[in-house]
Amino acid sequence: MSDTELLSLQTDHIRTLQQRYEHAIAEQGYDGLLISSGAAPVRYGDDQAWHFQGYGPFLHWTGLTGQEHSWLLIRPGHKPLLSLYHPVDFWHATPELPDEPWLQSMEVRSSDRREAPVMNVNGRLAVVGDPSQLSGVDGEHNPEGLLSALDETRVHKTPYEIACLARANHIAMQGHRAARKTFLDGGSEFEINLAYQQATGQREAQAPYHSIIGVNEHAGTLHYQYYDTEAPARPRSLLIDAGVRFRGYCSDITRTTPGAGERRFAALIQGLEQLQQRLCGMVAPGVEYVAIHRKTHQGIAALLNAAGVVQGVDDETLVEQGVTRAFFPHGIGHFLGVQVHDVSGKKEPPPSDAPFLRLTRTLEAGMVVTIEPGLYIIPSLLDPVLDGPLGKNFNRSVIDELRGCGGIRIEDNVVVTRDGARNLTREAGG
Description:
Layout: H1 3-27, E1 32-36, H2 56-62, E2 71-74, E3 81-85, E4 107-111, E5 125-128, E6 140-141, H3 144-152, H4 159-184, H5 189-200, E7 212-215, E8 237-242, E9 245-246, E10 249-250, E11 253-258, H6 263-282, H7 289-306, H8 315-320, H9 323-327, E12 368-371, E13 374-376, H10 379-386, H11 396-403, E14 407-409, E15 412-416, E16 421-423, H12 424-427
Parallel strand pairs: 1-5, 3-4, 5-6
Antiparallel strand pairs: 1-2, 2-3, 7-8, 8-11, 9-10, 12-15, 13-14, 15-16
Helix pairs in contact: 1-4, 4-5, 6-7
């Protein structure tokens, strides 16, 4: 899609948001809504701030991830009023607003003050954002009912949002290919991360989340957060979970690569890849997302038996006895949008057999989800199973061989369409 087409879709996106927000505001009994962009808090005992990426509803409208101390006023029947903080500052550069068509849909002002501008709203005004930024601002702060209604406006993505998510996938896959090559060339986790950033043209602070880059046993720590600067003597595996922000929208992609000579681990990756693609094929309107999660556990059980990790225990027993949860302890995925774990995924609590599942809804057209099965060798989870009643059915030599590889995760970003699904990650060459 060309940039011209994308910008045209953004104007339609703003029009759709105006309708959705006006409906939510009226339904909750308000006459106006003031949205704070937020600001990075200063670290305790320091004069440096944390990294800043913006408050979700502000990004939903503007995509301006680095715009601190700014405000957006939504009033039924009026153009949105966007007040941008532009200080006179010789210490820092002030972000320049792009000259794009969507701005014609708003009244745009600049201010050199961090405080909220004076709002001309007759009636009830709701104000949403980080409470630390709302002190002294007139209006009702973060009303729970309205916050839930605003979250719901983000569940069904507009064509513009899907186009941004697709672009974020395309850029991220360039990074994943560079990361894989660096690993196979003998690079360290730190060097792999640099290769990813170089290929995506994105600094770590701009990324939607801290990239997970685990080599060998580090791949078994689900949110592994460090980068070794020295490569291991024997590189056996790479798990990289990394995304990109594009105009505020996130990609979230995971790939696993075997090292040279790791035939058993490579076969497990291939098996999980096949399972993952079957799970992606389940995505469609009317499908319970929890059903995809449960199908994952059935697939993991079958894979454990097929790979000779377990012997003499049927798939159903492995699931019922919680064995598969030792190998696959997290949920199958989540909503994706201007947040990596996007909002409004759990209208109901997750079931007892899926306590970490972040999405429990029935799928509908316009939703965007991740599908990310995993299979890990995590000692703290697996060792109690090995010491339990089914321990005798495990092939210890196979498990010992796999321990040094850590684990596998394969993750795609998938749009629910009217008649099925669209896999944005595979479209991007993933």
